[in-house]
Amino acid sequence: MVTDSRSRTALRWAGVPLAAAVIAAAAAALVAANTEPVYRAATTLVVAPSSRIRDVPSELRALETLERRSILATMAKVPSIPEVRAGVATALGLPPNAMSLYSISCSVQPYASVLTIEVEGPDAARTAAVANAAAEVSRDRLRRLYSLFSARVLEPARPPGRPIRPDIGREAAVAALLGLFVGALALAAWSALRSHAAPE
User: Fold this and answer.
1) pLDDT digit string (tens) for 25-72?
2) Phi, psi at 95, each rounded to 5°
3) CB-CB contact of 135 with 43 (8 Å)
4) Bridge partners of residue 162, in order along the sequence
5) Domain 39-155 adopts which CATH fold?
6) Domain map (residue ranges) of the chain
7) How many other CB atoms sit within 10 Å of the CB of residue 140?
8) pLDDT per residue over 157-190, tens digit each?
């Protein structure tokens, strides 16, 4: 009889891990659904010797400089500087404090003279607009800083169709797995305590 009682109790508590997983997933989904979305848009600039170069030695020097790639790493710092951010705000008719909602970063693509400008922000259309404006303002600044080179837009940014975060499905799945683990751990601990406390 004692064995039957223990079996029935174990069956009743077997649903604890599953219940913990469901509750954790629902809580995570609720939190994610109420979190402000963040969108990412990207545009690319290709850097090449300027068309204004008229002599061969200057063009060769520009090509050699690009091959060393250190100049590209320096150029990649331009889109995120305060002057460019202010220029973007002016180009889009935004108050300067509005740019605090948007992060601008730039990286160099491997094995190519291409800069990728990425912008993250809370609005899909405006995030793409900020990325495109950052590319244009950066082009102008690069042209003034580096007379041997020119940059042109290779691919403009487009409004992203979905945010990069929160990812409700992924966060709910991770929470479910954690809930399942914690529930199973709690059940195992409870079973061990019951077995230890039960009379022989």
Assistant:
1) 666 566 655 567 899 999 999 999 887 777 878 778 877 878 888 899
2) -65, 145
3) yes
4) none
5) Alpha-Beta Plaits (3.30.70)
6) 2-35+166-197, 39-155
7) 13
8) 999 999 987 666 666 677 667 766 776 777 677 6
